[in-house]
Design goal:
Uridine Diphospho-n-acetylenolpyruvylglucosamine Reductase, domain 3; alpha+beta; 3 domains; 8-stranded antiparallel beta sheet; Vanillyl-alcohol Oxidase, Chain A, domain 3; about 450 residues; Uridine Diphospho-n-acetylenolpyruvylglucosamine Reductase, domain 2; 18 strands
Length: about 450
């Protein structure tokens, strides 16, 4: 069968040129300038946030419309070459990379429509910040958002998507009304809970395995005016975990997550971040701090802040700007590990992780993230969850290794692998880990560092 030479990469071609293996097919002519093979274009999508896997594709597609993706997928299906969707490039294990095919840069499909009373239609490459810029002036917002607003909508849904409001509203994928999807055979399909349900369920939470999301209709709800943010300090893991699990069930706060960090002296610090929202209609609507905090078992209150809603939702922006300014964001490896644990096992597993952890094995600026969610709230069938327990907790080690320290990366990855195994043994699962599909593709495409 005629196909692409797996060793041919666009990095060897002149900027703007097309390798002969690509250029001779009619589908490629149809794509015109949307298909790029210049060195700058293909190298720009050869890595991801993990900064550990590097694969230079033969070409990068910057689609003008979903029809361009249709043409590229049909071309790839006919010749047996990968066509891999990529959003913001925030993966850490090379899920959105290929060394012998085409990367679809979905950020060109970033249109955001006008919000209706309960929904908004957006391109898969739209960033969450842009969605909020469109919805908040209308007094609306998506019920669940990731904390990092620079992610793309399509990429978040492909992973599943959880956030501090998931204990009320489930995953981001549970708040999708419909999707335009390009199937692996190259068909453009509108799918929803009532139409093409198998496809609708198949693409949410499976990292592009069952199709490329091109457009999304998101559910919207009324947006509050602001948030009262509480940062509570805990003395030990047990009380820290217990309060989080309790709050996930009670629902007294709009937003709940936990974080463990090392302080400057190298000691573990436990923090619970909770937020209550309010309208601007009257002072009486503002949260009652004493009532909200009265029976929690925190050691102290690190901070209480009253923030406009957009400021609260974008509160990570200064931190990411700082990391970019140092260069760590762009160049340091990030061998991160996120698992979904049963609530009954999270303290035991977290305790074991902490026993073997050091500041070096977490890395500069690293943290451990907890997001507690009632399992029944995660309805989309392929979004990872701990099916063995009434509570699911996203437990994530947000690691960073200095660039060039391969031995440290190896140690971090070994610890991650052990955590994945323990999560599965306990009835949990990985979150955004390499699926069998991605692992099989990765094995055929060397490029890991």
């Amino acid at each position: 069968m005629t196909g692409l030479d797996p060793g041919a990469t666009a990095a060897a071609a002149a900027p703007g040129s097309r390798p002969s293996e690509v250029a001779r097919f009619a589908e490629v002519d149809q794509l015109g300038d949307a298909l790029r093979t210049g060195v700058a274009e293909v190298t720009a999508v050869a890595g991801d946030f993990g900064n550990r896997v590097r694969r230079v594709p033969v070409a990068v597609l910057r689609p003008r419309t979903p029809d361009d993706i249709v043409a590229a997928v049909r071309f790839g299906a006919r010749l047996g070459i990968p066509v891999v969707p990529r959003g913001a490039g925030h993966a850490v294990d090379g899920q959105a990379q290929t060394g012998r095919g085409i990367v679809v840069d979905l950020t060109t499909l970033a249109g955001v429509g006008r919000p209706d009373a309960d929904r908004i239609s957006v391109g898969a490459g739209a960033r969450w910040g842009a969605v909020l810029d469109a919805t908040l002036p209308a007094g609306l917002m998506p019920p669940v958002l990731p904390d990092f607003l620079e992610l793309t909508v399509g990429g978040t849904i492909s992973a599943g998507g959880v956030g501090g409001a998931s204990h009320h509203h489930g995953s981001v994928s549970d708040n999708v009304i419909d999707l335009d999807v390009i199937t692996p055979d190259g068909d453009l399909v509108l799918c929803s809970a009532d139409r093409e349900r198998a496809r609708f369920d198949g693409v949410r939470g499976t990292q592009g395995e069952h199709g490329v999301i091109a457009r999304v209709t998101l559910r919207l709800t009324a947006a509050p005016a602001g948030a009262r943010r509480y940062l509570l300090r805990y003395a030990d893991l047990a009380t820290f975990v217990a309060d989080q699990l309790r709050l996930a069930v009670e629902g007294r706060f709009a937003h709940v997550l936990g974080q463990i960090v090392y302080d400057p002296a190298g000691r573990l610090s436990f923090f619970l971040e909770a937020a209550a929202t309010f309208t601007a209609e009257s002072a009486a609507d503002e949260p009652d701090d004493e009532a909200l905090l009265r029976d929690l078992n925190h050691q102290g209150i690190e901070a209480i802040q009253t923030l406009a809603l957009r400021d609260f939702l974008g509160r990570l922006a200064p931190l990411t700007a700082q990391l970019r300014a140092t260069g760590s964001w762009q160049t340091d490896p990030h061998p991160r590990c996120n698992v979904m644990l049963p609530g009954e096992s999270v303290e035991r597993i977290a305790s074991g992780v902490l026993d073997g952890l050091t500041p070096r094995l977490l890395g500069p600026g690293g943290s451990i993230l907890f997001i507690p969610i009632p399992t029944a709230r995660i309805v989309a069938p392929n979004v990872p969850k701990a099916t063995s327990d009434e509570l699911t907790v996203l437990f994530g080690l947000q690691r960073t290794a200095p660039a060039g320290d391969r031995e440290l990366v190896r140690l971090m990855r070994a610890a991650n692998s052990a955590l994945y195994s323990e999560a599965e043994t306990a009835g949990g699962t990985g979150y955004t880990a390499l699926s069998a599909y991605h692992m099989k593709r990765a094995e055929s495409e060397p490029g890991r560092q």
